[in-house]
Structure formats: structure tokens, C-alpha cells
Amino acid sequence: MPELPEVESVLRYLRDGKPTLIGRSVRAVNIVWSGSISAGYGDILKAGLYGAKFAAIRRHGKYLIFSLDQPGEPGKSLYLIVHLRMTGRLYLVSHDNAVERHTRLSLMLDEGLALRFDDPRKFGRIWLVQNPGEVICGLGPDALTVAYEYFAGAFSERRRQIKPLLLDQSFVAGIGNIYADESLFRAGIHPQTSTESLQEVDVERLYRSIRDVLSEAVDAQGANIDGVFKEGGFIVTVYGRTGRACPLCGTAIAKIRVGQRGTHFCPSCQHLQIAGKLNS
């Protein structure tokens, strides 16, 4: 599933690649499968995108937010918002290329290009809005740029197991199963540890670990776990490595379920901490 680093890689590819999406105008809209368009936005998307020009792209958590200038309306923008979910993929091709089996949306652009959204599992969603807050208002700060003061303060207000908290997008946005496991391993914190049992030094270490892991993954263009992001070069240390040796101590990586999610950790490096004590 694409998480923050993979979505950031998509952003940079569309914004900085050659050809770039920036400055391209939409000439035609082909909604191949309407289920990818969030309920009630289909007609709005078709009418609003025609003639619009891609002016900028940004990311918040796992959401891509495209700013589009409207023809004949200087200063007025619409926002195309895309959540890739499990298998979504955005890419530029020649508009002469045949629509693929899993293509759900195709935007014909100027200069012979097309922006395609493919999604084999059909979980991805697309919106077109006047205010991005209509879609992302419930999200916490972006996990890559969140300030420590917010992180520590919000952390202290929540009493729950640490792994489900990291996956809660209203806490911080962008962390999924892969990078939650990797960050907790880097910080030496057991995924079932409760937030109230952690000391300030633990919270500081976790904050640094999240920032470091995400930054390294962004630099590596994400992780190629399921074949969706084939260019991803981030090497996981615990995620998906059940039974393999921990790179630090050699103990076999274990897999348990935490908050109904498969969770990977090292039993030796990540002791369960309870009320300030270590449970070995």
C-alpha cells in the first residue's frame, strides 16, 4: 500500500519529471470507472477539469493535492485530490497509448500527453473541490514535517497502544503499516506498548525515528513491497521479514496482530514496556 514516501515519489515524478504535469491543460476527461470518483463528484469533475491547467502539486499525508487554474477566471483554483489507497498509480503517457485494463481515469492533456489513474483493487478515490479542507480536514499534521511540540503534546493526550496510534491519520498523517513497524523498530519500542508507559526520552526517540525512516524512504523513492512501486529502493528491516534474523541481534523477527493489523518486530530489541517497567 502506498504510504507517505511512495506518494511523495509520485508527486516528484509528476512535478519534476520530463515531461512534467505542471502547466498542462486538460483537453478531455474519460471516467473509465465511476467508482473511483468519490460519490457525488462525477459531474463536478468532468465539468471542472475541462480546460483547467495544472498549476502546482502538494502532498498531505497519503493525499495528493493538485491545484488547477480555471480558464478565464484568474486567481480562481480548483483542487483535484487523489488517494491511491492500496494499488492506485498515477502516470503520464502519450494519449495515443491504449487505455490499460486497470485504468479508471484518463485525462487527455495538451502536447499529446495523458494523465492516467490505474487501480487494480479499485480502492483509490478522487475528488474535485474548491477547498481541500472538504477532504483532508480530519487529518493531523504531515508525519514528515510535524513539529515535535505538537507530536509530544498530542501523544500525551492519547491513551492507547502505540502501533494503532501511529496508524491513526488524525494523529499524524502519512504513516501506514510498513513505516509504523520500521519506525518502532528503529526506536526500540514494542508495538503493543501503551502510550502512558513511555517516558519523554522514548517519545523523543520515536519522533526522531519516524522522521529519519520517512526521510530515508523518500530519498530511496519508497519501498517495493508489493510490486506497485517498482523503483522503490528502501530496504525494510522488519516489515514482511517474519522468521528472518534481526539485523541488530540475530533474533528471529516475529509477527503478531496489533489493532487488527499484521505487525512485525524483534522480540529482543523491542521489549514490551508496562507502566515504566520493561516486560521481558
Model description:
The structure is a single chain. The protein contains seven helices and twelve strands. The mean pLDDT is 94. Helix 1 runs parallel beside helix 7 and helix 4 (148-156) crosses helix 7. The strands form four sheets. It has a four-stranded antiparallel sheet, with helices on one face. It has two domains: 4-136, N-terminal domain of MutM-like DNA repair proteins (Alpha-Beta Barrel); 148-279, Helicase, Ruva Protein, domain 3. By secondary structure, the chain is of the alpha+beta class. It has helices spanning 4-16, 42-49, 133-136, 148-156, 162-167, 177-187, 200-219; strands spanning 26-31, 53-60, 63-69, 77-83, 89-94, 103-109, 113-118, 125-129, 254-258, 261-265, 272-274, 277-279.
Give the CATH H-level superfamily of the largest domain.
Answer: MutM-like, N-terminal
Please count the helical segments.
Answer: 7
Structural class: alpha+beta
Query: Which word captures the global form?
Result: elongated
Cross-sheet strand order for the largest sheet: 1-6-7-5
In CATH, the architecture of the largest domain is Alpha-Beta Barrel
The amount of beta strand, in percent, is 15-25%
Biggest sheet overview: 4 strands, antiparallel
**What string, H for helix and E for strand, traces the elements in order?**
HEHEEEEEEEHHHHHEEEE
CATH class of the largest domain: Alpha Beta
Number of strands: 12
The termini sit apart by 32 Å
Nearest-integer average pLDDT = 94
Could you say what the CATH topology of the largest domain is called? N-terminal domain of MutM-like DNA repair proteins
Low-confidence stretches: none
Specify Rg, calculated over alpha carbons. 21 Å
Helix content: 25-40%
